[in-house]
Amino acid sequence: MAPMAHQAPLTHSVAFLARRAATALAAAVVLGTAAAPAAFADTPSPKKLPEGLYGTKDPQYDGVWRQSLALLAQDTVGVRPAASAVNWLVGQQCADGSFTAFRAEQGKACDAKTMRDTNQTAAATSALAALGGHGDSVKKAVNWLKSVQNDDGGWSSMAGSPSDANSTSVVIGALAAAGEKPESVTSKKGGKTPYEGLLIFQLGCDAKEGERGAFTFQLKGAAPNADATAAAATGALGRGFVVEPAGKGADRPVKPLSCKDGKPAGTGPAQAAEGGAAYLVAQLDKNGQHLLSAMPGAEKQPDVGNTADAVVALAAGAHGSAAQKPLKWLEKNAADWAKQNGPAAYAQLVLTAHATGTDPRSFGGTDLVAALNATGPKPAGSVAPSTAPDKNAKDSDNNGGGIGVWWVVAVGLAIGAGIGFLMSGRKKKNEL
Question: What range(s) does the Prenyltransferase alpha-alpha toroid domain occupy (predicted)?
Fold first, then answer.
């Protein structure tokens, strides 16, 4: 089934969740276990948007995600968000420290039916840690994330489901933002670190030469996934949404994963990130300095959001020269995408500009900061941009990936229909 030509694509933030959902569904078919995406919460859509929320569309699937990215991007460039915006995010937290995509009734306690989501929780943790003054909320969120770490050291979007590269990477970034040392956060059974959990998704010397160094989303031995690779190449370096620019003169060449006698020449997170970066560069060069969508029906369309993720990953590895060409592509092609997508897209581009030392107020002729501010409540003022990651512990349904609303609806309906493999005993583990 292909998206209807007249249908608008998804926002980047929802599409991120939809991409994750698509792969999770495919993984569940193979594994025969539950992997119901947490994006499809059963919270009813609001008739009126809450005060302080960024964007104008239904927040049911991405409210906390887009709010967190917006607040984080503003703080990164020295904008002090409105109190109502911060209060809305804080009020979304469950008593156990977790976050779901959206809670319409903040005064109502989370229960067993609340679909707690590690991605939303990690994003909120990163934002609140950066803003400061929310030490208790950050601590509770970190403790919850630790409590749902899988035995392999990684995380799934939903507690109890198999780990995936994207969720593990996002959580690593949140732990670092909260002042934790990710390598010291080990699983209760097996003592595995998040980095050990992440590296199991990298294709090694037994893969085809053009696929070596790439990461799969979930299943070991599955096809390389540029979205997962971009996330993992950043996460493996202990970085999150905010990557500080390496500075002038800091430019390391990208070195592909090298093999000797069928084994990698080097091991460890840094080498894994290097291999992932090399795969991304090869894909960018192949496609004209942008990545292509991996979503069904949109495989030949540019994925603006994922290209931005790739640029951040390259910047995190101090691969300045390699990041320049896709960055220039974004400056020429991302403005319309961001305008259509709203807060999450603007926030992502602001953070991309920051990571590369580019002025977000003049990004290809667009003032990304002003545009982001316009999608939510008027900022409270300006402050010095955040530099310490651990201090005080009107969008539309579009996405550059080109996948339509039908995909979220289709997956959501499939889950709602009660497909057997989505309803295993693992569900109980999620009912915290």
Answer: 68-181
